[in-house]
Amino acid sequence: MSVQLLRHKFTVEHYHKMIESGILNKYDRVELIRGEIVEMAAIGTKHAGCVNRLNNMLVPLLGDRVILSIQNPVVLSDNSEPQPDIALLQPREDFYAFAHPQPQDIFLVIEVADSTMKYDREVKVPLYAEEGVLEVWLIDINEEWVEVYREPARDGYKNVGKFSRGESLSIQAFADVSISVDDVLGNA
User: Fold this and answer.
1) Which helix (H) or strand (E) holds 126?
2) pLDDT value, residue 27
3) What's the CATH architecture for 42-185?
4) How far apart are CA 136 and CA 152, in angstroms?
5) HEC profile for 23-90?
6) Higher per-residue confidence, 125 vs 43
7) Tag placement on the chain: N or C end, fewer CB within 10 Å?
8) Among 153, 51, 58, 61, residue whose Cα is nearest residue 111
9) pLDDT tens digits, residue range 156-188?
10) Domain boundaries, the chain
11) Of the candidates 174, 175, 172, which has an alpha carbon nearest to the alpha carbon of residue 161?
């Protein structure tokens, strides 16, 4: 006889109430994915270095055409609030001080993966597609490539490309900006 466990799914509202009440605190590295509170992996030095490098590169390239948000929440639905490594957002005067960005505010989400590649590819990327995030970059810092996902649909992204060292890519919303994969990954 098998036992089926019941799971309680949380909404973004419940999740925020847990933070406000102290059940979760600012030191908890968690995000809300499909109603479940998921512990995020620790950030290693290669991961942190890649995020810092991207920040340093993207700010001068894009200037005030975007708000560059690092490891901050985005609300995808009433039950998902991930914290992508980088989100390029539509500029707003309040800098999202009164509400987290939603899919229509996002030009690009970037996830940097070392130990979380399978989870990011199989859970987070499909979630971004379902909720209509226009473009996602999944950077594999171990294998040294960038997967680019475009044209979101309920069943996944319709356009997927893989870029390696020696190649360049652009952000769909800013086709005038070319970025070298070597610059994204840093020195070999």
Assistant:
1) helix 125-130
2) 84
3) Alpha-Beta Complex (3.90)
4) 9
5) CCCCCCCEEEECCEEEECCCCCHHHHHHHHHHHHHHHHHHHHHCEEEECCCCCCECCEECCCCEEEEC
6) 125
7) N
8) 51
9) 999 999 999 999 999 999 999 999 999 999 986
10) 42-185
11) 172
- Say whether pTM exceeds 0.85: yes
Residue type, 67: I
Q: What are phi and psi of 79, to 5 degrees?
A: -130, 15
pLDDT in tens, 1-45: 677 777 789 999 999 999 889 999 878 899 999 999 999 988 999
| C-alpha distances out from residue 125 to 18, 61, 63, 93, 99, Å | 26, 25, 26, 29, 23
Contact 188, 165 (CB under 8 A): yes
First to last CA, the chain: 53
Please give the helix or strand (H or E) that residue 169 lies within, else none: strand 168-171
pLDDT at 69 over 80: yes
**Spatial distance between the Cα atoms of 158 and 155, rounded to a whole number of angstroms:** 9
DSSP-derived letter for residue 108 is E
